[in-house]
Write a structure and sequence with these properties.
By secondary structure, the protein is α/β, with parallel strands linked by helices. The chain contains 14 helices and eleven strands.
Length: about 325
């Protein structure tokens, strides 16, 4: 069993990574159904929260069926981060997670996200202050370091633990790498193997198959996997990994009927939550993976990502179901 503070999780839990414009309530609900053990919100700006910005506040929506659920916030200003903790607490999540890993320029240039990797003392100070400011468990998601020459993740993780961080998820790239090259899990294993570490250490980055998840568990000895891109338009990934862990075999891929049904539900839940326009637009990024592997599908995918009326999109789903009824997913 793995524990984040008092939250009990199964051995080697699978966590849905916080992804901007992806890990919203509809998608989190689908991932939870398919075996995700912990889900996280999209990252939320502390400055946006304290200004009551509509987009930031909307991201605080969480639902009982998602638990345990973590709300992730980012920022570099101590006062703003503490005030945002007070706002987050009112929505009663299970975990408050701090984003010290987002590599996007507009976040980094303000010293937030991975930008804080240039100032480790501030990173530790912010974490300590937030831990003291809330009764909820505080966790951290970060990267190996700012660049290859400044990787001190073993020391950094220990310092974060020592000020009260209850778990750490580490993406196996530096900020300088962005999402290029291969994720390096060896430094994450070094964090886990530090005899002074006693909080869960989760690995993140390039978990693209059940085999890779098993490698992270068995060869690198980490406590769990935080999975991001492999789940976009494919919430079944969690169930497939768990099946592989239990049996050593691969689950059959979801059928076309299952994919259409989940894509349809995803779109409807998004519309119910965000309204028609945003619901339609923000579900588009998932369609490529929902229907990946179908030959000569370009015409239908183009319709799915350009049509604005939900009824027209549902009609395309029906058309796909009829035209490709015999397709077998490998």
């Amino acid at each position: 069993m793995v524990k984040i503070d008092n939250i009990e999780l199964p051995d080697f839990p699978l966590l849905l990574a916080p992804m901007e414009d992806v890990s919203d309530p509809p998608f989190r609900a689908l991932c939870k159904e398919q075996g995700a053990d912990v889900v996280y919100t999209e990252f939320i700006s502390s400055e946006g929260l304290i200004r009551d910005a509509a987009k930031s506040v909307m991201k605080l929506d969480i639902y009982e069926k998602e638990r345990p659920v973590g709300i992730q916030i980012f920022g570099a200003n101590l006062d703003s981060m503490l005030r945002s903790v007070e706002i987050v607490e009112k929505t009663n999540p299970d975990i408050i997670d701090i984003n010290f890993g987002c590599p996007v320029k507009k976040v980094v240039c303000k010293g937030a996200g991975a930008g804080i990797l240039k100032d480790i003392p501030l990173m530790v100070k912010l974490t300590e202050a937030m831990v003291k400011h809330t009764k909820l468990p505080v966790t951290v998601k970060t990267r190996l370091g700012w660049d290859h020459d400044s990787i001190k993740i073993v020391e950094v993780a220990e310092r974060l633990q020592d000020v009260g961080c209850k778990a750490i998820a580490i993406h196996g790239r530096t900020r300088a790498q962005m999402y290029k090259g291969d994720a390096d899990w060896k430094p994450i294993a070094a964090v886990k193997n530090n005899p002074r570490m006693h909080i869960p250490v989760f690995g993140n980055g390039d978990i693209s198959s059940p085999e890779r998840a098993k490698e992270m568990r068995d060869e690198y000895g980490l406590d769990g996997a935080m999975i991001g891109r492999a789940t976009i338009g494919y919430p079944w990934f969690f169930k497939e990994v768990k099946h592989y862990f239990e049996t050593g075999t691969h689950l059959p891929k979801p059928t076309l009927a299952e994919r259409v049904e989940v894509a349809r539900r995803h779109l409807q839940m998004s519309i119910d939550w965000k309204g028609e326009r945003l619901g339609v637009v923000e579900t588009r990024r998932h369609y490529t993976n929902y229907f990946k592997g179908i030959p000569h599908f370009k015409e239908y995918r183009l319709k799915m990502v350009t049509l604005d009326d939900p009824q027209d999109i549902y009609a395309v789903f029906d058309e796909v179901l009829e035209k490709f009824a015999d397709h077998q997913f490998a």
